Amino acid sequence: MTMSLEGRTTEVHEPEGLSIWPRSTRAERGGDLSVGGASLTETAERFGTPLYVLDEQEVRDRCRAYRTAFPEADVLYAAKAFLCRGLIHWVREEGLGLDVCSAGELTLAVTSGFPPERIVLHGNAKSPEDLAAAVRLGVGRVVLDSPSEIARLAALVPPGDRQKVLVRVVPGVAAGGHASIRTGTEDQKFGLSIADGSAQHAIARVLGQPRLELVGLHCHIGSQITEVRPYVAAVRRMIGLMSRIKEQHGVELPQLNIGGGHGIAYRPGERSLDVSVLAGRVRAELEEGCGRARLSVPRLTIEPGRAIVGPAGICLYRVLAVKRTGTHTFVAVDGGMSDNPRPALYGVRYAPRLIGRHSTAAPRFVTVVGRHCEAGDVLAQDVPLPEDVHPGDLLAVPVAGAYHLSMASGYNLVGRPPVIAVADGAARTLVRRESLEDISIRDIGV
User: Fold this and answer.
1) DSSP β-ladder status, 353-355 and 394-398
2) How confident is the model over 297-313, as pLDDT tens digits?
3) Category of 151 on φ-ψ map: left (φ > 0), alpha (ψ -120 to 50) or beta
4) In this predicted structure, what is the pLDDT of residue 346?
5) S-S: 36 plus which of 8, 299, 315, 422, CB 3.0-4.6 Å?
6) Helix (H) or strand (E) holding 244
7) Tens digit of each residue's pLDDT (9 = 90 or more) over 19-42
8) What are the DSSP calls for 275-326, one per residue?
9) C-alpha dihedral (412, 414, 416, 418), degrees to nearest 10
């Protein structure tokens, strides 16, 4: 099949299958898809658009896959990817802990019944409120990211108590799908450098604080990583630092947190990180490296977020307008950068699909854009959709569960979409749609 793109003839394969969709996805009559046994078309009609659909079983299955691959490790769900009470409940039931970055995420988790001892708080610039909430609510561990946090946290711990902490270290490993999400290298805002001695100095200071208990090291080298090699390199450098800590301070740290950042496929044919391979290689490196350094093997912690919730989410949009200008066709939908800023931030590419009707029209490359007053409000550039796509059509965007609503804004005051869970053929609201009344109630006037 051929398609025209800016005057060029381009070979295009028949519409792809469902490889990047939740495992429960099924093609139905009339061009519809069902996820978790629920029709996406009917779900859109019932709840309106834009709309996020989250496959509960897909989330649970991915949690279980991590527990199977890392049976002796602490697996923490990275709440920054997306968090709501329903998801907190699923994660707890599947035996995972939580990685949070603010008093807001922490409080939501604890008030939803999540055990605080299974929560880790970190972030590069924790506010006094963040640290106070962590101590008050009894989080299991706090990751120290800067020298100023050491004394500040210690001052909050009641006399006679000790707060377990880790020090976030920059291992000098470059990895990640975009420059803005590579966090394991020098000269960026996260962690403390081994190369310039900042990490070693902070470790010595923590060991001198009687109200802090240093239990391990933390590193996070980036996001959307699809290769195992950078993780192995990071583990090797962390073992080296742990060995030096033992030599200099006589302390053998029992924990090592290597973060998350596990990459997933957003379009058919893209690579994703093989979690079972990662587990095997990391375990081997830990055992061999610790053996050479004469260290006990530390308990491992990992923090997957995107890899658990990303592929479980679908975003549904209604087409508002189709505009042909010169060689381009723009398909405008009723959402955009206010509910998904990732294309504008990172140039992420998605694979939207027409659902709800069967089209026999030839495909044409189009650019799917949002409704907001920005030229950069582009959701998917140069993607194939049927030539007869028109206002009222329904588009579904897979792999939409992570860093969409968690990064959403109030731009143009359109309101954030709801989140609907699907399971066993039923759909229920997890997070309701943000209304104009919700927005207006915060504006108290002059």
Assistant:
1) antiparallel
2) 999 999 999 999 999 99
3) alpha
4) 85
5) 422
6) helix 229-249
7) 999 999 999 999 999 999 999 999
8) HHHHHHHHHHHHHHHHHHHT-PPPEEEE--SHHHHGGGEEEEEEEEEEEEET
9) -170
- Give the pLDDT mean for 202-207: 96
Per-residue tokens: 436:
């104009």
**E strands in 59-162:** 74-78, 97-100, 119-121, 141-144
Which residues does 160 contact at the CB level (< 8 Å), separation at least 6?
A: none
What is the pTM (predicted TM-score) of this model?
Answer: 0.92
3-state secondary structure of 225: strand
CB of 220 within 8 A of CB of 259? yes
- CA nearest neighbour of 22 among 312, 361, 338: 312
| Percent of the chain predicted with pLDDT > 70 | 93
How large is the angle between the packed helices 229-249 and 198-207, nearest 10 degrees? 50
Angstrom distance (rounded) from CA 227 to CA 271: 9
Which token pair is 272?
């994703």
Q: State how far the Cα of 152 lies from the Cα of 209, in Å rounded to an integer.
A: 11
What is the Cα–Cα distance from 286 to 295, expressed in whole angstroms? 10
Q: What is the pLDDT of residues 141-197, one digit of tens each?
A: 999 999 999 999 999 999 999 999 999 999 887 655 545 444 444 566 678 989 889
Alpha-helical runs (H) found in 15-84:
40-47, 56-69
- Rounded to the nearest 5 percent, the helix, strand and coil shares of the chain are 35, 25, 40
Contact partners, residue 349, CB within 8 Å, separation at least 6 = 266, 267, 343, 380, 381, 383
Q: Exposed/middle/buried for 350, CB within 10 Å: 0-12, 13-18, 19+?
A: buried
The answer to whether 364 touches 387, Cβ cutoff 8 Å, is yes
φ, ψ for residue 365, nearest 5 deg: -70, 130
Which of these, 57, 85, 47, lies nearest to 315 by C-alpha position? 47
Q: What are phi and psi of 53, to 5 degrees?
A: -110, 130
> Structure tokens of 6?
């800016």
Cα distances (Å, whole numbers) of residue 354 to 30, 144, 325, 357: 11, 46, 22, 8
